[in-house]
Amino acid sequence: MKRLVCIVVVFYAALVLASFSLAGAEGKDLVTERCSACHSTERVCRNLGQKDKAAWAATVGRMVSKGAALDANQQTLVIDYLSTLAPGSAPVCK
Q1: Cβ 25 vs Cβ 77: under 8 Å
Q2: Could you tell me the domains of the chain?
Q3: Structure pTM?
């Protein structure tokens, strides 16, 4: 019985970790595709580590109001992705 519980716990932990990785990959793809449609990612790079999640939310909201093609879910992915990157992180900073 203990073995079964351990297997189930490990399985669910793997699912959670995989979902975080997938969300990060989606955020990365959205930043490199959508943000760079209007400006270079250098502009984004300058703000990594400087802005917290709320500041990135304001920035993304402003970009959407200027025409960035991101739905609500995509905005969340971009905000979460950018707020976790360290300064100089690839691929945003090349």
Answers
A1: no
A2: 25-94 (1.10.760)
A3: 0.72
